[in-house]
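Exam revision sheet. Question 4 asks you to relate a sequence to its structure. Input first:
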Amino acid sequence: MLSSLLTFAGCEKNPVIVPDDPIIPPSGNGLFTVSEDGNKVRFAPGNLEYDGSYHFAARQYDYGRLFGWGTGSDPTLDSYYVRDYPAFDDWGSYIDGDWRTLSKKEWNYVIKDRSNASDKCGAATVCGVHGMVLLPDNFSGGTFTAGLNGWNTNVYDISSWSDMEAAGAVFLPAAGFYSDRGLFNIGSRGHYWSSTPLTEYYAYFIYFVDGQELSHNYCERCDGMSVRLVQDY
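Answer key, C-alpha cells:
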C-alpha cells in the first residue's frame, strides 16, 4: 500500500491523459453549493491517481495518490524544496471534463458555511476505511449521523455505502500525508489540497483527524496530500 502512494521512480514527466467517466448520481443528487453566489459542483467519483496517466480511484474509499501542491503537469515531482513549487498548476486541467480543485474558501463553504453544513458532515468508516462523509445539499435515501464523534459515528458495508453513493454522498478517505520526514498517519488523518496559496512557500489544505476534528490549515507546498477534484454544475 505504501508503495502505491509513493511510487515516483520511472514515471513519465509528461502525463498521457486517459480520462475516466465520472459516476454521476441520478435525479440531480450529488450537488454541493460552494459559494454565497450559489455556485454548485459535483465531486469526482474518487481521489486522484497517477500511474503514467491520470485517473480516479476505482472506489471512493481507495486512498489514491499523494501529490505536492499544484503539480498538474509534473505529478511525480517529489522535491522537498518549496522553491520547486512556484505556482499552482491544477491537476484538473489535464483530465477531460473541466475538472478543477476547490479553493480554500470553497472548501470552507462546503464544510462550514452552506445551509445546515453541520448536518451534512460526519466521520465514518466505509468498508473498513476511515474518513469523512460529506452530504450533498439535497440528501435523501441513506442512513447518516452528523458529527465528529470518532470513526464509528457512521459505519458502512458495501451494500449500505452503495445506498449512500446513490444519494450523492462523498467519502474522503484518511490517506495520511507525506513530508521530508516520511509518510504519516495513514488511516487517522486526511489532508486534501486547495488551490489557494498563502505565501510564496505555503498553501492551504483541509484536514480531519481521528474522526473528531475538521478544519483548514496551511503547510509547505512540497508536502504530499490527497486530491479530490470537482466539476462546476
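Marking note for examiners. The two ends are 34 Å apart (CA to CA).
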